[in-house]
Amino acid sequence: MSSPSFTVGITGQIDLAQGSEVVLRKRLAQIFAWLRDTAVSDPAVAETFGKPLGLRHTPITLLSPLAPGADQLAAEVALTEPFQFEVKCPLPFPIEYYRLASTFEKTGSESMDRLLNQIGYEQAFVVRHRDDPEDYDDTFWQEQLVDRELRNRRYRASGEYVAAHCNLLIVISDQTDYTDDPQWDAELTSIAQPGTRTIAKSYINGLRPGILPLPTSLSWQENGPLIRIYSPRPDQPVTGSEQHQVGELAIWHPADSKLLGDTPERIHKREMSELRDLADSLEYLSEDLGKTGKLRQSSSGTTIGAHGMSDSSEELVEHFCQIDQLADRHNQIANRHTNTSYLIGFLVFLCLLGYEAGNPMWLYIGIGLTLIATTTQVMARWHSRIFKKREDYRALAEAIRTQMFWSEVGICQSVAGYYMQRLRGDIQWLQSAIDSLVLPLERTTTSYHQLSRPIDRCVVFQKVLSAWVRERENHFSIETYRKTKLREVLSFLGYACLAAGGAIVTITFFLTHHAEASITEILEIALNHYGASIYPLWAATAVILVIGFLCTDFRFSSSIGREESSISLNYDLKVFDVYKSHAFKVICGVLLGFVIYSAIYVYVAEEVQAQMISLARTLMLALGGLWLGYSATRFATEDSKRNNDMRGQFGSAHKKIHSLIQEYRKAIERNAGDDELQMLERGIQSLYQTLGREALYETTEWLLIRRSRPVEPVAKVR
């Protein structure tokens, strides 16, 4: 099983000038080697390309429609040593009809068949136009071949598909500048205008809506740069003009990459840097995946294979399980580093207190701990990038999960089209990774569309309801409870410690500033007789509170997966009402401060009482701030609300989809007409699609929170 790949697209002239192939092959080989680890040898363009992308472990896929000329030339180079790229062929027609198309009138289709024997016929697929019917037949394809308008629409769709699904587009043409307009054919509509320049313009200025069955994208910057290799037309001399020689390289960037006040140099530097970030992220993922074996179980313990996923989803299942476990692993490591940072920070604070007490050794210990903590955090971020990986891998796993179940119920939509447009540039590699895993998308829905009986499709709907919707509802129920528990525990500890510190300050004030004798006397009696001297009673009270908390936690956790889980959640969350009360937190804190002060007052020698009370006061106040700050760092409040919202979404979806599946099943039993069955089927699919979008939006919000408001203890190192 391969990992997500870096995708290169090729488009170019069918007719190449005589004698130009040698130079063009050399240029293609240089570009392909640059993708791996070899710098461009031509000094004139080496600075423009910069250092190699370094895709040593990441698979590289070439998208080529296998038309004569540029398409076939690039495929031939990609298949040779040392590259051996995977080649996928988005064709405008099925192979048997493509051979008859005008594309091969001059050269014949023998060269395409020879390449397909090397590539594998299973790598060739037909690109769907937005206006295509659901089912094809011979009459349809014959009409598409004969009618010039329809034929050119298919060519345009094939080229747009390459432009839409690649990270980098190579264009072999005589276009000298990215602003050059394509030639306009007055006999064709705007969506049927063919030609290499038309595809290059779409890549630079954004895909033309109405051609591919893709959701309209507001941005296209994630496409990456366009590399133009100059190739004169056959009627031009091979050497070209003085300014433009055959094989001349140029790099152009998408139009929406330009910001206000940008210069071409600044745009190029920024866009090439983002391309390298994309390549680095794919490379890190490939290395991480290379360290894991094949898995059939996700980190949450859900055995995907137990639900009987179809063969067409098999590879997506294994990708999901691997990446889900990687996300969980990096999340654990990142949390460990964060927790360690807080612990070491607190120890450093204690060392400073010891230094203030007059012992210089504690200062050296504190400096040493600070250096250790800083070095560990910097190394974690610089080398393994665990904090970035835990976010991105979680988002990638959620995207693959959604894509997997969409495909299972026959929804032929790529999540990359709906996903994270607001975060373009920063995490554009995720869209690339998702897209590369499902090319061609139609293949992933094959198993569903091969089900001819409605009852079989009903079984699939029910299976996905259990494997996805119910599982996610339970997951978000658990996460809601855990995040709420974490938030309230941290809040309780924070406010209780602050109240304890305040109580110590108050008692100290009354005892040291000679308050009224009656108040001082009452305090002294209380400290001597009702403080530390009755510690078994305080300990028993604390144990009762902890046991009540843990019992509620156990009862709820054991109810997850049962029908009453949502009811149990609502009931058990009410138990927290007592713990959430600020009055309860303050009372517990005041009593804690009273007990601490009493213990020092009764059991500590009088000559060091002042120092111990000062230390206890500072310690309680510092701990209170630490717990509250840690709660904000863990996003406990935000995560609790978001998980509860998603629990509600999946719970509502479960009820609606379950009801509609029952209606679908009854319609099958009473032999309802095809129109009614198809209407019910589309209704179920639309609910699954909407639910998937909500899951993707939730992940987008999750990333936005963490990337727009970083609160990790150490600043980001790049």
What would you say this structure looks like, in words?
The chain has 718 residues and is mainly alpha-helical. It folds into 3 domains: 280 residues, no CATH class; 107 residues; 155 residues, no CATH class. Helix content is 63%, strand content 5%. It contains 23 helices and 7 strands. The protein has a 7-stranded mixed beta sheet with strand order 4-3-2-1-5-6-7, with helices on both faces. Helix 3 links the parallel strand 2 and strand 3. The chain is elongated. The relative contact order is 0.08.
How would you describe the shape?
elongated
Low-confidence stretches: 563-567, 708-718
Task: List the domain count as a whole number.
Answer: 3
What is the helix tally?
Answer: 23
Strand order of the largest sheet: 4-3-2-1-5-6-7
Q: What's the story with the biggest beta sheet?
A: 7 strands, mixed
Proportion of helical residues: 55-70%
| H and E order | EHHEHEHHEHHEHEEHHHHHHHHHHHHHHH
What amount of the residues lies in strands?
A: under 5%
Radius of gyration, in Å, reads 33 Å
Indicate the structural class.
Answer: mainly alpha
Strand segment tally: 7
End-to-end separation: 31 Å
Mean pLDDT: 82
Label this structure with key terms:
718 residues; 3 domains; elongated; disordered C terminus; seven-stranded mixed sheet; mainly alpha; 7 strands; single chain; 63% helix
Secondary structure layout:
Layout lengths: L5 E7 L8 H16 L6 H7 L10 E4 L6 H10 L6 E6 L3 H4 L11 H10 L4 E3 L11 H9 L1 H17 L3 E6 L22 H10 L20 E5 L18 E4 L11 H27 L23 H43 L4 H24 L1 H23 L19 H10 L3 H4 L1 H4 L4 H59 L4 H13 L5 H25 L5 H16 L1 H22 L2 H28 L2 H34 L4 H35 L10
Parallel strand pairs: 1-2, 1-5, 2-3, 3-4, 5-6
Antiparallel strand pairs: 6-7
Helix pairs in contact: 1-3, 3-5, 6-7, 7-8, 9-13, 10-11, 10-12, 10-21, 11-12, 12-23, 16-19, 16-20, 16-21, 16-22, 18-19, 20-21, 22-23
